[in-house]
Design brief:
Layout: H1 2-7, E1 10-13, E2 19-22, E3 26-27, H2 29-36, H3 40-49, E4 55-57, E5 60-64, H4 65-73
Antiparallel strand pairs: 1-2, 3-5, 4-5
Helix pairs in contact: 2-3
């Protein structure tokens, strides 16, 4: 139920008679990569592989900060060994 609430637009009033729909801002590859502190090409590869939550608009990858946050919180699995 939490995922559905995040994906649905909310109504805001922008004037006396005009409700406006406010969507969550999406991040481009560079912004999302900076947020995750990884290289943009690495993030694009992860998006192509379906490792990270992303969607395409035309030729461009886009990312929701809330989806990336949830992905990180649920535990990013890695094939690499942990450092000791």
């Amino acid at each position: 139920m939490g995922d559905q609430a995040a994906l649905q637009p909310t109504l805001e009033t922008s004037g006396p008679h005009r409700p406006a729909i406010a969507f969550e801002r999406v991040l481009n590859t560079e912004e999302a990569a900076a947020l995750l502190q990884i290289h943009p090409k690495t993030l694009q590869k992860m998006a192509r592989e379906g490792t990270v939550p992303a969607f395409r608009i035309g030729d461009l990858w886009r990312f929701r900060a809330s989806a990336l946050d949830e992905w990180l919180r649920t535990g990013v699995s890695s094939n690499r060994h942990s450092c000791r």
